[in-house]
C-alpha cells in the first residue's frame, strides 16, 4: 500500500494509509536495519522513549507507529480488534519499508506483532514480544486491566490525561476509545497456542517477574514457537520504561544475533 506523507507534529509524521491517517516516529539511522516498536492499549509511541536513543545509537532505523485511536492517530468508526490492528500494521510496513523489519511489541503490541508474523512472515525479521498473554488462560487476576474494566476513577483519570495530550479527536472522544478498548480486552486475545507452530521467525518472549501474565503461560508460548527464546526480568508490566539499562542491551543483542543454545 502506498502512503502519502503529511505534516510533521511533535517529532513525528502523519501518513495516509488508504482511508486511515497514522502518525509515526521515524528516527535512528535511516540506512540501518529497521526495527518497528508496537505500543500497547491506551498507549502511544511515547512509551518507547527510553529506547529511541539507544536503538538509534546501535545503528538501527527506529520506527514507532501509533495505531488508530491511539496517541496522535485519529480513531476509525470500526470496533477495535487485534486482526484489524495487525492488518493496519501490515499496511504500514508495506508502505514505509522495502525490506523485512524486526518487530518489538509490548503488551497489546505483542499480540499485533505475533499476528503480523502469522499472516505475513516475510515482512518480519526477528521479533520480541514483551509482557502479554495470548489467550485468557494466561491472564493474571487483580491487575490494572481489572481496574480499567471496573472503571476505577483514578485509573480512568490517568488514561484520560494521557489521551487528551495528543489525540486529534479531542477529549470528548475518550469515552468512545475507552468503550472500544474495554470490549477488546474483555474478548481478546484468544489464540490457541498450537497455532504458534506456524511462526518460524526467531522470537524472544520477555516477561517481568511481576507482570499481568502467568509465567506458566509465557513458558507455554515459548515452547509453542519453533524458534522461541525466553527471558524473565525483574520489574513490572512497564519494564521497558523502568529498566531500560537491562531491557535495551538485551533487545539489541537479540536483534543482532541468535544467542547460543547453551554456553560452553
Automatic annotation (TrEMBL):
Domain AB hydrolase-1: 35-248
GO molecular function term, any single one: hydrolase activity
Record keywords, A-Z: Hydrolase
InterPro entries: AB_hydrolase_1 (IPR000073), AB_hydrolase_fold (IPR029058)
Residue spans crossing the bilayer: none
Highest taxon of the lineage: Bacteria
Protein name: Alpha/beta hydrolase
Naturally occurring in which organism (per UniProt): Gordonia asplenii
Amino acid at each position: 500500500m502506498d502512503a502519502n506523507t503529511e505534516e510533521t507534529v511533535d517529532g513525528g509524521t502523519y501518513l495516509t494509509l488508504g482511508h486511515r491517517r497514522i502518525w509515526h516516529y521515524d528516527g535512528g539511522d535511516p540506512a540501518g536495519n529497521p526495527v518497528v516498536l508496537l505500543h500497547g492499549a491506551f498507549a502511544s509511541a511515547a512509551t518507547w522513549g527510553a529506547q529511541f536513543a539507544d536503538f538509534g545509537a546501535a545503528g538501527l532505523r527506529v520506527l514507532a507507529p501509533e495505531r488508530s485511536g491511539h496517541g496522535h492517530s485519529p480513531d476509525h468508526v470500526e470496533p477495535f480488534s487485534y486482526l484489524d490492528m495487525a492488518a493496519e500494521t501490515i499496511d504500514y510496513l508495506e508502505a514505509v519499508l522495502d525490506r523485512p523489519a524486526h518487530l518489538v511489541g509490548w503488551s497489546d503490541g505483542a499480540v499485533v506483532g505475533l499476528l503480523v508474523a502469522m499472516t505475513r512472515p516475510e515482512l518480519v525479521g526477528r521479533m520480541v514480544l514483551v509482557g502479554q498473554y495470548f489467550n485468557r488462560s494466561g491472564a493474571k487476576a487483580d491487575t490494572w486491566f481489572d481496574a480499567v474494566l471496573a472503571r476505577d476513577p483514578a485509573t480512568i483519570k490517568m488514561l484520560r490525561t494521557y489521551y487528551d495530550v495528543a489525540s486529534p479527536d479531542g477529549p470528548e472522544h475518550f469515552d468512545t476509545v475507552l468503550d472500544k478498548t474495554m470490549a477488546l480486552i474483555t474478548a481478546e486475545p484468544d489464540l490457541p497456542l498450537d497455532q504458534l507452530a506456524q511462526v518460524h521467525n526467531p522470537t524472544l518472549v520477555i516477561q517481568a517477574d511481576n507482570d499481568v501474565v502467568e509465567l506458566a503461560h509465557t513458558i507455554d508460548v515459548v515452547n509453542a514457537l519453533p524458534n522461541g527464546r525466553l527471558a524473565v526480568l525483574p520489574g513490572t508490566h512497564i519494564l521497558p520504561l523502568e529498566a531500560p539499562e537491562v531491557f535495551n542491551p538485551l533487545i539489541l543483542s537479540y536483534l543482532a544475533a541468535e544467542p547460543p543454545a547453551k554456553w560452553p
